[in-house]
Every structure is written in structure tokens, then in C-alpha cells.
Amino acid sequence: MNILKIDKCPLCGGNHFEEVMTCTDHYASGESFQICRCKDCGFQFTHPVPVEAEIGRYYETPDYISHSDTHKGLMNRVYHWVRRVMLARKARLVKHNSRLSQGSLLDIGTGTGYFPHFMQERGWHVSAIEKSPQARQFAKEHFELDVAAPEALNEFADKSFDVITLWHVMEHLEHLNETWETLKRILKDQGILIIAVPNPTSFDAEKYKEMWGAYDVPRHLWHFSPSVMQQFGAKHDFILCERHPMPFDAFYVSMLSEKYRKSAFPFIKGLITGAEAWIVSLAKKDRSSSMIYVFRKK
């Protein structure tokens, strides 16, 4: 297996790293991976991990819901319920920040296609990108969406989109800085970039530590705190305009975390922790399990 070697921090360029914890891949392999932190800027990442060309086997499980769309098990049924609620919220967020009722939208890492389909039904001209052939086929069969492979990202013309969205995708991307630069190139000057990622400084992350479900090693390569995400935007000439908590994520992630702990009654215990996390995020939104960041070009 070829390993992605991280010799310098993608954010600050430093090379002073420390190991923070060891996490287990509970989805696919049972293997262990280190979470490391840059001592200079605090950015956390999984290391070592397979290179992008070889990481596919860690997604090849019927339980990986964003690719398989499985309803198997209580946790996945909760996921589907949360997704239905969040689709409408995402659409409102796009409309509010873009000040558009219709426009051109690119959804990167679209999974099985629910979000671009939702926006297409509301009159948006939608493009979508997804690495999983299985998920692309699902989107084609169920929504008649022609979802492109990741290579298509570099083929879009400059200033093509009013809105670009990455819902829980940035943490998966090997070529992090190159992706930011491409996003800047293909986004219109008055366009908006919306990124949602898990938050390793959240209430539930600090509670569950190495058992936190949203570390999701090795599929999640990068772990973005709110301050780190703002710094990445600034590095690539974006201004952070808004940030929003995703309180529902804490319920799902906490249930997963309790399951990984092999707790009795993981659903009930996850609900309790999710409620605690939600209350905390009301006062301190940067402690939310996941965060949505809205950027504009400088």
C-alpha cells in the first residue's frame, strides 16, 4: 500500500507534528490510524493514510451510507430522517446567501444525489461531482442526474458558478490547497462557497475522544476546527461571511460513537449526548458537532 506522506502542514507549511490519539476504522477495516497535529498552527490530520488512488477499499462497504444509501439499521434510518430536514435548510441557506432564487450550482462530493436533485427541482441549473461509481449510478437511476467523476472539476471554465457546495466533503480530499485554488477559479466574483465539515473542537468530540464517530479514519484525512477553516479561506483569498452550527449531526455522531464504544442502549445514550451538545451549541455555536462555513471571494 502506498502511503500519503505529509512532510509539511498544508495550512502553515510547518513541519513540527505531534501525535494526538489513535483511532480505529470501525466501518471497513478495523485498522488503526493516528491523528496528528501541527504544533505551529493546530491543524489536525490523519497520518499515515493510503494515497487517494488506493483509499477506495475503505469506502467499499454497504454500511457507508453516503455512497450506498442503505436504510439498514437504526443509525442509518436516523441519517435519512436528518437528511430530509437538512435539505430544506441547505436550500434556504443557499438562497439567503446568494440572494438568488435560481442560478448555477456545483455540488462536489454529491453522494447519491439528493441535494442537487432537491435544488434542481427548485429551478437551479445544477452540476454535480462524485468519486463513487456506485453513487453516481444511483443518482442517475433515481434522479436522472448526470453526475461527473472528480476529474471534471478541472474542466469547468473560470467563473462558472454562482454557488459551490461541499457538504462533508473537504475532509476527504487529498489535494487540499489545489482544491481551494480551483474553487476560487470557477466561482463567480460575487458567488458563494459553502463548506460543511465535522468539528474536532465540538462538545461531542471532546467527550468521545478517539471513539468520536466523525473522525472516521482513514476516510477523513483532515480535521477542521473553526479557526483552522477560517485560516484556510484567508490563505486562498476568501472571506468568511457566516458560520452556522449543525446541531442534528451531534445526535447521529453520538449514536455512532456509543455504538463504537459497544455501549448498552447506544441509541438512547446518543440521544442524551446529542441533546447536551445541542444545548451547548446554542450558547457557543463553535462547539457544534459540525459547522457550515459561508465564504466569498476577497
From TrEMBL:
The keyword Methyltransferase applies. SUPFAM superfamilies: S-adenosyl-L-methionine-dependent methyltransferases (SSF53335). GO terms for biological process: methylation. GO terms for molecular function: methyltransferase activity. The keyword Lyase does not apply. This is Class I SAM-dependent methyltransferase. Pfam families: Methyltransf_23. Keywords: Methyltransferase, Transferase.
